[in-house]
Write a structure and sequence with these properties.
The protein has 279 residues and is of the alpha/beta class. Helices cover 46% and strands 19% of the residues. The strands form 2 sheets. Strands 3, 4, 5, 6, 7, 8, 9 and 10 form an 8-stranded mixed beta sheet that branches. A two-stranded parallel ribbon has the order 1-2.
Length: 279
Amino acid sequence: EAVRHPVSVCAGVVRLVGAHRSGIEYLKDSYLALKRAKAQGLGQTVVYSSELGAEARERAQLLRDLRLAFDQARLFLVYQPQVDLRSGRVVGVEALLRWVRDDSTEISPGHFIPIAEQSGLIVGMGNWLLQVALLALQRFRAQGFPQLRMAVNVSPVQLRQPDFLAQVQEALAETGTGAEGLELEVTESIVVGGLESAVEHLRRLREMGVTVAIDDFGTGYSSLAQLSQIPFTELKIDQGFVFGAHAQPRKRAVVEASLDLARKLGLTTVAEGVESIED
């Protein structure tokens, strides 16, 4: 018996107008348009434009520059404090990756991190970042903060790597850091797309004593049922909800609901972007 299956098609279109070019150039342009169509969802059609081509060339150049910056040790970390509001003590710091080009232009992580993830460069960068951050933790502890904890962002691409657990264990051992001194921050996206192996990595790290935090809580597309799969111990409320929450009832309601959820789950909570007493 025949079974009907719905089929959707994405298309990338190039108009053959203007100066004549080689067939391979037209194929490259149509492929760029097709990639954009697929990124927009099912059944989409995108017509190639000069703007689309310029954007692709810019991304390619940015990736080349990023690889060079990483190879030449031009990337660096800054550390954002985490303060216990009850005691006023700094209890942790978060390592944040920064890139400043030779012309003093600072490239936003929101711009270059996705490119590093798509290219796979994030794996080497992530391993380097972990080592540097844990070495910095030892320096901070020696300067009078013996209980300080280091928070490091981890990409879903890193979590997919079979040797991710071994890389973390090696970094802890080489820097003389106990597992309780490390916090790994992951986004909700790790539960989307069947990342069972990633969740298993986190579960084993939790058993070792590493803290796992859900970063930018409330901004992803996962359900609470999916989030329950992650063995996390800390919930980070995105600064988009925190900023101005004291004056905006809807934002305040989201923050209060998140705090209530964290309490009931036995989680600690970090609010991003708190810069004033009102916040």
